[in-house]
């Protein structure tokens, strides 16, 4: 890593430190209004803690599997270029390749308004195993934007091949809640979803989503904004997206959590996944030489305004 980049990171109150995740480094940014952590393994935004508040993101203490494709549950994993199981290769890992390889830290700085900017990159040409599993060349970038009000992720995928690239995807965000039985997701009323825990039946959402447990739902052609209301932590999380036609909600619930070896039994109580993505019938193709952007913006506010 070059000295200029390290100096730019240090000017932001940042540092690089070794991490336990696949023995890969993390980027730490510590500002008066927030602390953020980015894992270069998988390009995860691990943590975002506004000053005086609990983390907006959930992290399981369970370390998951030791192999390359062992999963962990925390932060914002990138599911790309497929969401869920691979349709053609049953031995391939769930939720794509991007979350299982080391990303490259390429830029640190500030936006014009003073927000912190961190950019990381994953190129297929840098990883022979990716080229073996996914023959079409690509380059991914994530631009993280941090302020005391929240965070943004601009995820860009470029098709560097000469053929259309089929993609389904998600920013698989684990939002930290005080209790998923009292948390509510607002903004999906009357939206049709595919219930993957109920044989893929289609259902029309009625009112807010609550309680937020035992669900695996893909809301199709979903609105670009929803909110998590969290009475236990006294806050609401505003979630805005662009380039995302699907909103995915996931929580394994009590029984399935106990069956998993990559999750602690009680973890499910402290998160709800609200994912910006393009899945099932919302999957698409990136034309040769073209790009697609998926944007996520998260703000935190008190549940009850003064």
List key phrases describing it.
306 residues; mainly beta; Beta-galactosidase, Chain A, domain 5; eight-stranded antiparallel sheet; globular
How would you characterize this protein structure?
The chain is mostly beta strands and 306 residues long. It is built from three helices and 22 strands. The protein has a single domain, classed as Beta-galactosidase, Chain A, domain 5. The protein is globular, with a radius of gyration of 19 Å.
Note the topology.
Blueprint: H1 3-11, E1 14-18, E2 25-31, E3 34-39, E4 44-50, E5 78-79, E6 104-110, E7 116-123, H2 128-133, E8 138-147, E9 150-159, E10 165-167, E11 169-171, E12 174-176, E13 184-186, E14 192-195, E15 201-204, E16 215-219, E17 225-230, E18 235-242, E19 246-251, H3 253-259, E20 271-278, E21 284-286, E22 291-302
Return residue spans where pLDDT drops below 50 for at least 5 consecutive residues.
none
Instruction: Please tell me the CATH architecture by its name.
Output: Distorted Sandwich
Count of DSSP-assigned helices: 3
Range of strand content: 35-45%
Radius of gyration: 19 Å
Distance between the termini: 46 Å
Number of strands: 22
> What is the percent of helical residues?
under 10%
């Amino acid at each position: 890593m070059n000295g200029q980049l390290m100096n730019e990171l240090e000017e932001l109150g940042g540092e690089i430190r070794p991490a336990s995740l696949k023995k890969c480094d993390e980027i730490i940014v510590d500002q008066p209004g927030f602390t953020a952590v980015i894992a270069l393994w998988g390009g995860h935004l691990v943590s975002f803690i506004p000053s005086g508040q609990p983390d907006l993101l959930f992290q399981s203490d369970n370390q998951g599997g030791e192999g390359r494709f062992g999963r962990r549950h925390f932060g914002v994993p990138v599911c790309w270029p497929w969401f869920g199981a691979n349709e053609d290769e049953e031995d391939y890992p769930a939720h794509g390749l991007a979350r299982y390889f080391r990303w490259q830290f390429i830029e640190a700085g500030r936006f014009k308004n003073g927000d912190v900017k961190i950019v990381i990159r994953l190129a297929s040409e840098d990883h022979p195993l990716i080229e073996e599993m996914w023959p079409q060349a690509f380059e991914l970038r994530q631009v993280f934007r941090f302020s005391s009000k929240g965070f943004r992720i601009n995820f860009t995928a470029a098709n560097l091949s000469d053929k259309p690239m089929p993609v389904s995807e998600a920013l698989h965000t684990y939002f930290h809640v005080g209790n998923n039985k009292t948390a509510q997701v607002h903004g999906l009323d009357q939206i049709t979803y595919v219930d993957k825990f109920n044989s893929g039946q289609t259902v029309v959402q009625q009112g807010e989503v609550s309680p937020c447990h035992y669900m695996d739902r893909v809301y199709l052609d979903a609105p670009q904004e929803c909110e998590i209301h969290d009475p236990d932590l006294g806050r609401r999380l505003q979630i805005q997206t662009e380039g995302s036609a699907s909103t995915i909600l996931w929580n394994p619930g009590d029984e399935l959590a106990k069956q998993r070896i990559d999750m602690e039994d009680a973890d499910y109580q402290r998160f709800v996944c609200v994912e910006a993505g393009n899945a099932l019938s919302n999957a698409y193709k990136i034309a040769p030489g073209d790009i697609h952007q998926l944007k996520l913006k998260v703000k935190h506010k008190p549940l009850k305004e003064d």
